Amino acid sequence: MRRRFFSARDGLQLSALEWEGPETALPVLCLPGFSRNALDFADLGARHAGRRRVIALDYIGHGESARAGLDRYTLPLVIGDVLDCLAALRLPRAVVVGTSMGGVLGMVLGVLRPGMLAGLVLNDSGPRLDAGGLTSAREMIGNDSGFAQLDDAAAFMRKLLPETGIPADHWLAAAESSYRQAENGRWYARWDPALLQALPKAEAGPTELWDMFQALAAVPLLLLWAQESKVLSAATVLEMRRRKPDLELLSLPGLEHAPWLGLPAAVARIDAFIGRLG
Fold this sequence. Notes:
Blueprint: E1 2-7, E2 13-19, E3 28-31, H1 42-48, E4 54-58, H2 75-88, E5 94-99, H3 101-112, E6 117-123, E7 128-129, H4 135-141, H5 150-160, H6 171-176, E8 179-181, E9 187-189, E10 207-208, H7 210-214, E11 221-226, H8 234-243, E12 248-252, H9 264-277
Parallel strand pairs: 3-4, 3-5, 5-6, 6-11, 11-12
Antiparallel strand pairs: 1-2, 2-4, 7-10, 8-9
């Protein structure tokens, strides 16, 4: 694994993690959720390293990418960052694995770069997302006080976040991928807390992207759905399957938004899906 740095079109620095693999194999582009970062895909990258390239992007304001003003944290500009990543890291065609907002960005790529999208894994993401299900995310994103110990950060996450399948012995690792230690010894978020102001409000209503979903008719899709998700409803999943009968679905009972990608069932289905595509 190596850290890559490159410029966005406005000159800000973007970062991504790369796991190398042969040029002949179909690469994977990983796009995290709204406040998440490339480290969410460390296990996926390690599993495929040596067999195919895996790129996991940090959006502006996330991970090791530059922080910016609030007007930079908009979906059209984030899409521009993804396109800049494709160009800078030479990804003319790839399988995209997208969690939540990352899945939305994957659908957008299917419209803007249809030849680029070899397949798409949607982790609790789809063409109709309810912003009202992001209450816990708001509280977490807006907390910038820092933690004295990594254990404190892990306890905070475990108390606040819904049931996503993270096992008890993995919370410390989850915290380490979410917070970094500063020079003063405290642990601070790997995202810009100003992102809280860019998070969609519940009163704005759900995001509706059915036209984009329709454009993916010929693209292989795998959906990981947390059955207790307050972001992706059962009705939306049913409509997705009606509109795209060949949609592959992994239903995860008892889990909420967004499922941990280290779940054995998720690992098996994602790896099999990618393997079939090349």
